[in-house]
Design goal:
The protein is of the alpha+beta class and 260 residues long. It has 9 helices and 8 strands. Helix 5 crosses helix 9.
C-alpha cells in the first residue's frame, strides 16, 4: 500500500473536515485525534456528524448548552454537537411539516446508545414547555424512562463494551399538530437470544439478571429464592459478574422506577 505523508498542521484542527486540503486516511485520523485530545469529540463532515467516544464524562450536555443550540439547526458558528443534529431534525419537521430521520451508526462501543439518549433528551427539553401530561408524568419523561428498561433487558457487558446493545432499536417520536410530544413507538429487533444460555469468557449475560441478584429486597429474595449471581451456572460460566464503576443495585432501582 502507498503511504501518504500528513502535511496538515499538528496544532490546528478542523471542525468540518470538508475544508481540509488533504483528504486521505492519515490526515482525517490525525484531525480526529487532535480534536479528541482536546475533548472536542464531535466533528462535521458536511452535514454528517462524527462522534468519538471519550470514555469519560464531559460538561457539554447542560441546560445552558441546550439553550445555545435551540433553534440554530446545523449552525457552523457553534462547535459541532449532537444537539445541532437533533435541532436540525426538529426544525426541519416544523418548517417542512414532514417526518425526519436521524441515523445513529457505529461499531460496538462507539457510543450509539448514549447518542440516542442525548437526542431524545434534547427533544424532551426543547418541547418541555408544551409537553402533554399523562397520568401526572410528562410524556417526554416517560419516553426517557424507557431507556433504563430497554438497557436492562437488552444490553450486556462484552469484552469491548460494558453496556453493549445486543439488539437493534428504532425510536419513533410522535408529535401533534402543535408540535408537542404526545408519544413514542419503540421497535426492537435481532435480540441476541443465545446470550441467555451461553456467555463468552469475561462477558456478562443481560444486565437484568445481575441487577436482580444484587438489588432484590430481602423479603422478595426469600420469597423468590434468589441468590447471588455466582449461584447460577448460566451467569457464572463467564467468570464475570461485575462491571467496573457500575452499581447493579442502583441500576435495579432505575429499572424498577421505569416499570412503575
Amino acid at each position: 500500500d502507498e503511504i501518504l505523508p500528513c502535511t496538515m498542521s499538528l496544532t490546528e484542527d478542523y471542525d468540518d473536515m470538508l475544508f481540509m486540503s488533504d483528504l486521505h486516511e492519515a490526515s482525517l485520523m490525525t484531525n480526529l485525534r487532535l480534536r479528541t485530545d482536546r475533548d472536542q469529540i464531535y466533528t462535521w463532515t458536511g452535514s454528517i456528524l462524527l462522534s468519538i467516544n471519550p470514555n469519560k464524562k464531559l460538561p457539554i450536555y447542560t441546560d445552558e448548552v441546550v439553550a445555545q443550540y435551540k433553534g440554530q439547526g446545523l449552525c457552523k458558528t457553534l462547535p459541532p454537537h449532537v444537539y445541532a443534529v437533533a435541532d436540525n431534525a426538529f426544525g426541519s419537521m416544523l418548517s417542512e411539516n414532514h417526518d425526519q430521520t436521524i441515523l445513529v451508526s457505529g461499531e460496538s462501543g462507539a457510543g450509539k446508545t448514549v447518542v440516542t439518549r442525548l437526542v431524545l433528551g434534547y427533544l424532551s427539553k426543547v418541547c418541555r414547555t408544551v409537553a402533554v401530561q399523562a397520568g401526572g408524568i410528562a410524556v417526554d419523561a416517560k419516553i426517557l424512562q424507557s431507556g433504563p428498561l430497554l438497557e436492562s433487558f437488552g444490553n450486556a457487558k462484552t469484552v469491548r463494551n460494558d453496556n453493549s446493545s445486543r439488539h437493534g432499536r428504532f425510536y419513533q417520536v410522535q408529535f401533534d399538530d402543535q408540535h408537542r410530544i404526545i408519544g413514542a413507538k419503540i421497535s426492537n429487533f435481532l435480540l441476541e437470544k443465545s446470550r441467555v444460555t451461553h456467555v463468552a469468557h469475561n462477558e456478562r449475560c443481560y444486565h437484568i439478571f445481575y441487577q436482580l441478584c444484587a438489588g432484590c429486597p430481602d423479603a422478595e429474595r426469600a420469597e423468590l429464592a434468589i441468590g447471588s449471581w455466582e449461584d447460577y451456572r448460566y451467569l457464572k460460566q463467564s467468570g464475570c459478574g461485575h462491571v467496573n464503576g457500575v452499581s447493579d443495585v442502583e441500576e435495579f432501582e432505575k429499572t424498577k422506577a421505569a416499570l412503575s
